[in-house]
Specification:
140 residues; single chain; alpha+beta; OB fold (Dihydrolipoamide Acetyltransferase, E2P)
Length: 140
């Protein structure tokens, strides 16, 4: 604006400066509106399972079953935590293949060793974590 005041004193450029200033203000307003619109669209797509980066592709609803059959290999027996570290296969439509810690019945721990193949039913443990039930050791 300092240049515009100087130009007004020297020539008839003051009206040109005001026009340019208004045009730049309008352009900045439009760019801000476009940027905010893009951010809200990105926030809406965060709930889309196809764009989610979490390991679970969908959250189960209360109407759906709260247990999933899994198959995997025991990586480690964690006796002090009453748990197994299991490398499991993909659970189609719910979770990718990965290695996870699962809580198990304490009586089961002496019967299992690293390298054992197993099938089980996976459930959510409260308040967080996962639980294995109906664990069966199988042949590879």
């Amino acid at each position: 604006m300092l240049f515009c005041a100087y130009a007004a004193a020297r020539t008839n450029l003051y009206s040109i400066c005001i026009t340019m200033y208004k045009s730049l203000s309008l352009a900045a307003t439009l760019l801000t509106a476009l940027a905010l619109g893009g951010l809200s669209a990105a926030a809406e797509s965060k709930d889309d399972p196809a764009t989610s980066c979490s390991c679970c592709t969908t959250e189960p609803t209360k109407d759906e079953a709260e247990s999933w059959p899994i198959r995997g290999v025991v990586e480690s027996v964690l006796t002090e935590r009453h748990a197994l570290l299991v490398k499991h296969e993909e659970i189609p439509g719910f979770m990718r293949a990965m290695t996870m810690m699962f809580q198990v019945d304490l009586a089961l721990l002496p019967k299992i060793k690293p390298g054992d193949n197993l099938t089980a039913t996976m459930k959510r443990a409260q308040p967080r974590g996962w639980l294995l039930e109906d664990v069966k050791i199988i042949d590879p």
